Amino acid sequence: MIRNLKIYPIFNSKGMPTIMVKIHTDEGFFSASIPSGTSKGKHEAKELPMGRIIKNFSKIRSRFIGKDERDWRGIDGLLKELDGTENFSKLGGNLSLSVSIACARAAFGNEIWKIHKPRMGIEFPIPLGNVIGGGKHLGGTDWQEFLVIPHVAKSPREAVEIMVSIWASLGEELRKKKILIGKNFENAWMTKLDDLKTLDLLSDVSDDWKVKLGIDFASSSLWNGKRYVYKKLGKSLTPSQHVDFITEVAKKYKLYYLEDPIQEDGFRQFMILNHILGKDCIIVGDDLYCTNSKRLRKGIKNKATNGIIIKPNQIGTLSLADEVVRIAKENEMVIIPSHRSRETDDDWLADLTLAWDAPLIKSGITGSDMAKLNRLIELWEEIPEVKMAKLPL
C-alpha cells in the first residue's frame, strides 16, 4: 500500500531544475527522477515549470495514498484521469512520469525490467554512443549527434569500453589537430569540422574499431517550413533534394542508423527514404512519433520508418510508453529506448530496455548516462542465461 509521496526539486546534468518523486510503501521507499530534452518534438507531452509542478503535486498527492502500488497500470490510469488532456498539459508530463516510474519500481521492488514476465535468455542491448555533437546540442555541425555502435561487443562492459576508448582517442586526435572546441551538453566532442568532414574522420574510426556509424540528424531544427537550411555546409535544400542528399550520404559512408533524417511532419519523405534505404539502414523516427501511439499508427500506415525512438517523458506515463512499444513490435519495428540531453543519474531506462527486449539503447558515453550503462553491466552479472542482442538488420 502507498503510505506517502514526496516531491524533491533536484537538478539535471545541465544544472537545470527537475524533479524526483519518492513513494513510501509497506516495502520501503522507491523513487524516480525525470530528464528533459533540449531538442524537443512539438508533439511531446507538456513539461511544466517547477513552481507549477509542486502546486500540482500538492493537489493530487492524497489521491494516491492508500492505493495498491502493485497496480501500476491503474496508477497510470489515475494520472491520466486527473490530468484530462491529451498531452498532460494540466499536470505536466514530468510530474506524471515521475509518479508512474516510482510506482512501477515499488510494484517490482526496483526491478522494473520485470514489468513483463521474465523470460530465459534475455538479450542485452547494443548501446549507441554519441561521440561528436552539433546542432541544438552545440558543436561545429548542423547534424546533432554522430554515433558509434559497438556491435561486436560480447558484453555490456565490453561495449562501454569500446565506446569510451573511441571517445577518448577521438578527443586526443582532435586536440592534436587543433580542431577541438570542447564538449557539449552530452559530453560529445565539439569540433571545427563540418558534417561531411566529421564523417570522413569517423569512417576511419569505424574501420579501425569495427563499429558501425549512425547519425541523429534532428532535421526539424534545419527545417524553415519550406527548405532544409544547412548553415555549416552552406546548403538550402527542398524536401526532395534533402532526401537525395541524405541517401547519398548514407550510401557513401555506409551509415547503419539514421534518426530523424526528415522533419517531424514529413511522413511522405520518411516513406520515400525508408523505401530506398530501409533494407540496409534503420530509419528511425523520434520527433516524428514522440512516443505517441496515434502518430506511430500514422507512420505504420505510411510505411514511414522501420525504427522508433522510445522516450517515456515524451508521452507521460510508463503504461502509455509500453503501449507504443507493443504496437511497434507487432509491426516489426526496431525499438530504441533513448536518454535525453538533460539527464539525471537515474537508471530506469536500462531496466525498461530489457523489459521491452530492445536490441539497441541510445545514450551518452560519459556523465549522467554512465548510470544507465552501469545498470546494464550490473544486471548482466545478476540475470542468468543472458546474451548480447544482434543487429536488427
Keywords:
393 residues, alpha/beta, Enolase-like, domain 1, TIM Barrel, 8-stranded mixed β-sheet, 11 helices
Describe the structure.
The chain has helices at residues 50-60, 72-83, 93-107, 156-176, 195-209, 239-252, 267-277, 293-301, 318-330, 348-355, 370-382, and strands at residues 2-11, 17-25, 28-33, 123-124, 126-133, 145-149, 180-183, 189-191, 212-216, 228-230, 235-237, 257-259, 282-285, 307-310, 334-337, 360-363, 387-388. It is built from 11 helices and 17 strands. The strands form 5 sheets. It has an 8-stranded mixed sheet with strand order 15-14-13-12-9-6-5-16. The chain has a 3-stranded antiparallel sheet with strand order 1-2-3, with helices on one face. The chain has a two-stranded parallel ribbon with strand order 4-17. It has 2 domains: 2-112, Enolase-like, domain 1 (2-Layer Sandwich); 123-388, TIM Barrel, CATH 3.20.20. The longest helix has 21 residues, at 156-176.
